[in-house]
Amino acid sequence: MHWRVFILVYVDDLIVAGERFAGVQAIKSGVAAKFEVRDMGEVKDFVGIKVMRDKKTKKLTLSNPGHIMALLQAFGMATCTPNKTATASGVKLSKTGENLLPDGNRYAELVGSLFYLSTTTRPDIAFSVGVLSRFMSCPEQNHMRAAKGVLRNLRGTTRLGVMYGGNEALQGYVDADWAGDFDGRRSTTGIFFTLNGGPISWASKRQSTAATSTAEAEDVAAAMETKEALWLRKLLLALGVDGGAVPMGEGNQSCLALVNNPEATGRTKHVDVAYHMVRDHQARGDVAFYFIPSAERPADGLTKPLPSPALTAFRAAVGVGEDLGAVARGAELGDPHLGEC
Predict the structure, then answer these.
(1) Domains of the chain, first to last
(2) DSSP secondary-structure letter at 82?
(3) Contact at 8 Å (CB) between 142 and 99?
(4) 23 DSSP assignment
(5) Which pTM was predicted?
(6) What pLDDT digit, counting tens, does each position of 137-171 carry?
(7) What are phi and psi of 97, to 5 degrees?
């Protein structure tokens, strides 16, 4: 008898998952026959990530409350007043060379810890952390204040995490904020993919070159998203899932015209030569770009700071919600709205 079983390994910690419990037991028995192991039962915590399952509603939540609380305590902000957003809307950080921090290592430690959170269970802070990471070589006082602003936001959202539930196929979204980088006028790419109702891959990344138009910035972003879609599609095929062409939500009509139009002009030649692969894979049926209106662009939160109402909508769109075990752990975590710093 054959079962499909998956094993996630991190150093000496393993998670075994499968379609049938018998398959999981067979893997456990095989490993235990060769190594000394300790069976911890159903996974509840893995490398610091809380795993909460609601079997009745078939929902899963991954969160990092312990890591957040430890980080707040390490920086003396365990009782600080929470911020509603990680970065205030309209804030532009830059390098001035003034008011440098006496100890840049402390800033690097904080941003590194925030980066871990932004890539595991908190895509809603990915843009803010991406901007902060640009100043690791010469952090200034205002950069540290901005980093602590992210901590203040985490203080009030300790229980949030990524949530999964349902059987939705792989879906991608892309956006680009043209020339948003104050120092080099480079654009920021925002991409994310959802599967079964929750995010499985996301990124907020400054582009390597300065784009001369919004269409060029969006085309660069579309190329990055296409590469990620191809990798995820291959991964799902290896797991026995074939969902066909990956739908890709794009909000720029000029970019869509470049993707769908096989003709090139002198004004778009430099973009077309570098990113014609997007057209190729669209023609092959690997991806399927389509237009989404500005009010429905979920990737906006990965390219710019959002006001509180828009941030709430962004979290809902990308599958960030309250930990299913929040009520049970309320006393352990403490009230996130106590005190001031």
Answers:
(1) 5-41 (no CATH), 63-161+313-327 (no CATH), 167-301 (3.30.420.10)
(2) P
(3) yes
(4) H
(5) 0.89
(6) 999 999 999 999 999 999 999 999 999 998 899 99
(7) 80, 5
